[in-house]
Amino acid sequence: MKLVSRLLVAAGALGCLPGCQLPGGPGLPTPRVTGNWSGTVESSWGVLPVRATLTNEEFTTVSGTFTIDGHNASGTIRGNLETKDSYSGTSFWGTLAISYLTASGETCRSESIAEATSGPATENAVDIFTPGFPRGTCTDPPTNFHVILRR
């Protein structure tokens, strides 16, 4: 009888493997963020409307573009989506780049640091924060840059 019980428990555990999700294990869902988004950018430039187009590449990689209305600025989003477990949700981490015309009429481009650029992401909301854009040619890029996107 004990052997039959052990076999049933083992069979049940093996049958669960394809559908069971362990914290940090494979198969955790990654939000689909592909599509058009709108929202705001809150920064040292104030609160401005933003539009973005994002694409999931290879499930966890994200890339996209954004346009900030009212400041004639645009940029790119590149990073990864990471779901550690089913309770903590999904986080974005990566880089933002921004381009805009300077007072002299030239286009500058600067990029954030990946270690300082992150935020939560779902299929209906993406929030990305970076303290600034220290790499690049822009001499006065926005600081405390918070992109708030919604479907």
Textual characterization of the structure:
The structure is a single chain. It is built from 1 helix and 10 strands, in the order H-E-E-E-E-E-E-E-E-E-E. An 8-stranded antiparallel barrel has the order 1-2-3-4-5-7-8-10. Helix content is 10%, strand content 50%. By secondary structure, the chain is mainly beta. It is elongated. It has one domain. A hairpin with a 6-residue loop joins strand 4 and strand 5. The relative contact order is 0.18.
Q: What labels would you give this structure?
A:
mainly beta; 151 residues; eight-stranded antiparallel barrel; disordered N terminus; 50% strand
- Please give the share of residues in helix: under 10%
**Largest sheet: spatial strand order:** 1-2-3-4-5-7-8-10
Q: Mind describing the biggest β-sheet?
A: 8 strands, antiparallel, barrel
Poorly predicted residue ranges: 3-25
Short description:
The chain has 151 residues and is mainly beta. It has one helix spanning 2-16; strands spanning 35-43, 46-57, 61-68, 73-83, 90-101, 107-111, 118-121, 125-130, 135-136, 145-150.
